[in-house]
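Final report, closing paragraph on structural work. Over the funding period we assembled a curated collection of sequence-structure pairs, and we close with a single example.
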Amino acid sequence: MITLQQAFAAAPIVAIIRGVRPDEVIAVAEALYEGGVRVVEVPMNSPQPLESIRRLSAMAGRMVWGAGTVLDEETADAVADAGGQLVVSPNTDPRVIRRALERGLVPMPGFGSASEAFTAIAAGARYLKLFPASTYGPEHVKALKAVLPPDVVVQPVGGVGPGSMAEWWVAGARGFGLGSDLYKPGRAPAEVRDRARAAVEAVHPLMAAG
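Its predicted structure, as stored:
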């Protein structure tokens, strides 16, 4: 198994494959992997999300995967039972964060304010999802990074794409959640691969610059 830290060292991108079906999830994951992405999130409002998460065990040792839109402890348990490694939420709920950690999963809670960020950190989270990022902007991250612990990774999600990564990176973001820029239902795996490659090529120079 690879860790999330190792996956982010390759490319700090979480591919949000909302709407993926179990019968196509491996083809999509393989396409993302070929494009250089190492982290996959299956939102819980996708068709049979837990079955897709189970099938993603085929990517063990190469990718990190889990569920998105996790809103309660019971769903976190279900993700763990299905073999997921991540629990991504649109909100900050200390109960979900703590349950994820208890089950050996990495929590990625959503946040907007400093209060939510520190609530998530106090519960044990170290990867924070700024959501929806488009309504906050890079300056919001820059201001927050001045007070957040240095080991906390802020990831803008929602309205962020390869073309805007640089301004977010300069502001202090060190991860990105990309959805329709990479995948949407009906998109061919070859196009998913090419889009993933473009995103990875956009972020690698930023990583090299520090």
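The beta strands are 13-16, 39-43, 64-68, 86-88, 106-108, 110-111, 127-130, 153-156, 176-178. The longest strand covers residues 39-43. We thank the funder for supporting this effort.
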